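agent: user wants the structure for NADH-quinone oxidoreductase subunit K from Roseicella aerolata. delegating to structure tool.
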Amino acid sequence: MSATLPYGVTAAALIALGLFGLVAQAAVLRKILACNLLGGGVFLLFGVVARRGATAADAVPQAIVITGLVVAFAATALAVALALRLHQITGAATIAGEPESGPRGE
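agent: tool returned. relaying tokens verbatim.
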């Protein structure tokens, strides 16, 4: 059994939970959280694949993962801001159906 096997299984579980959340959830914030789970699983899987041997690890994949984390944080902040704006305009917290009324203030 390899030392990276638990990390690979955890990454696969995070990716599966993220995909399930994207498909099954109608709430916008839950979809954003599912995207974050999916991204975390991909980052973990990328780190597991980049691992070489017991002590050595390549620095380039580590730098790419760190850059990806920063981009994912910025994308999450933008998605939350857009979700708040969607809630202000439609008054709904989900994207499952049509809103009952028009935009507020009109």
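agent: one observation worth passing along. Residues 50 and 71 are 20 Å apart (CA to CA).
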